[in-house]
Amino acid sequence: xxxxxxxxxxxxxxxxxxxxxxxxxxxxxxxxxxxxxxxxxxxxxxxxxxxxxxxxxxxxxxxxxxxxxxxxxxxxxxxxxxxxxxxxxxxxxxxxxxxxxxxxxxxxxxxxxxxxxxxxxxxxxxxxxxxxxxxxxxxxxxxxxxxxxxxxxxxxxxxxxxxxxxxxxxxxxxxxxxxxxxxxxxxxxxxxxxxxxxxxxxxxxxxxxxxxxxxxxxxxxxxxxxxxxxxxxxxxxxxxxxxxxxxxxxxxxxxxxxxxxxxxxxxxxxxxxxxxxxxxxxxxxxxxxxxxxxxxxxxxxxxxxxxxxxxxxxxxxxxxxxxxxxxxxxxxxxxxxxxxxxxxxxxxxxxxxxxxxxxxxxxxxxxx
Length: 368
Fold this sequence. Notes:
Elements: E1 15-22, H1 25-38, E2 42-49, E3 56-62, E4 65-72, H2 79-95, E5 102-106, H3 113-120, E6 127-129, E7 133-137, H4 141-146, H5 151-154, H6 166-176, E8 179-183, H7 189-197, E9 203-205, H8 213-217, H9 223-230, E10 247-253, H10 259-270, E11 274-280, E12 288-295, E13 298-306, E14 314-320, H11 325-336, H12 340-344, H13 358-361
């Protein structure tokens, strides 16, 4: 029986473990401190990247002080390795400590909670994962999500090879997490932007100190639901208030992108202060569903899934704050699609044509 399916001991039920992520150490540490003081028996397992040695620093803290503080040497400095090699045995050991009622797991700043939780899930036994929490600044959310800063430029990268943008990292935290804690003006532009990106089932809390430890540690993580929110095949426009000029476009079409025109229009379609997610297909790869993931002027595309019996569809959900970007993006989307006349000819003319998107999508199936 897999560890995640084993029943806990009736004498000692499985201990809840909540993953808390953030981009700003001050906000994360303030939330952790508040939760530690809110309930007896709660401890925090916190990881920091040691900038001098590239090792991880493991810190275990309780309300009354530090329990452990050690440097951890890893074979490879990635999130999944860190969780598998150190967090799994650490959680098992801490779950056996007398008097411990819950654990707050704070991975290094900029960590992707889907990677952290996905790595930990198979190892649940004496502990189980509770719903995840992300804390963010409403004051800096627009710049963080839509600006072109990289994690490396801000000193927030997990390791030297981490090339993600700040917007990519923050979007991953906000889209996966069950509870979003916003610090700052709840009616400002940053909160408005997050409302456009937040799914209806995600809880939003506007006061860092209003969240109690019992709320954080209650229930169990629904990993599949959280992943679905990040899955381009299931992307949905949530909308939200527009007092500060935030807008969301839902761009849908059964027709594929024309490979050549997509390359011509990709800067118009994906450049600028945007958060864009979705799926598309191209006529010379009818068996592939491609992912579109963009934040802060960076766009990542790839052939990620196999299509089923039915042809794929093209759908991008784009959120922005600059009024001039809306018509530009909408027009670029339309210009990148096969025209109705091209579509009426079917897919036969595309058999054996040059694969213009191979550098981005990889080599296509030889049978195509």
